[in-house]
Amino acid sequence: DIQMTQSPSSLSASVGDRVTITCRASQSISSFLNWYQQKPGKAPKLLIYAASSLQSGVPSRFSGSGSGTDFTLTISSLQPEDFATYYCQQSYSSLTFGGGTKVQIK
Amino acid sequence: EVQLVESGGGLVQPGRSLRLSCTASGFTFGDYDMSWFRQAPGKGLEWVGFIRSKAYGGATEYAASVKGRFTISRDDSKNIAYLQMNSLKTEDTAVYYCTRDSNFWDLIVGATVTYMDVWGKGTTVTVSS
Fold this sequence. Notes:
The structure holds two protein chains of two kinds. Helix content of chain A is 0%, strand content 50%. Chain A has strands at residues 4-7, 10-13, 19-25, 33-38, 45-49, 53-54, 62-67, 70-75, 85-90, 96-97, 101-105. The interface between A and B is medium-sized, with 25 and 24 residues.
């Protein structure tokens, strides 16, 4: 199975900060990488697919990059509604998620 | 509005069965693969399994943790996907989500990337004596 490792597991940031979350795959997954946002008590929401494609309706402050084993989700200017947990997911072989990154208010 | 609504969750004893339903609306259900995921209390997301569309033979695949116990099926005439869960264990306790699966043809890689673009709100399954 392909293991997905996210870092950090949590971070504290202020509104307006630039935030970067990293996801590393245990083997190359090309661009088979998606990012989701989940708020407490809610279902996950797709943000980015195929490593860097922005899902329709998602604000442009969200961006994704990377290929192979190393990927990044960047929030260019953190907004109050962005405080949530973020998960990466690989769809190269079966489907597995990273452990999540909780973005908290500083 | 594109929507998925899960139902059928509840409290069940270990070893018993439960069937979850995922009712779709707002899109052509039969054109899409559908997946099930779960999230144990305070934990991360886990893929349970998926069912391909009839165009791809309705094939199914399952996570190792549920293979042989869970079965996914679909009724395209009713726009419903099902998750039949047998021989339930306490570790199956979770919120269960169904998703619509979409595909993106990556020109650079020359392959199709699958992603989950619509999620239901989830239904809670508690396995306890």
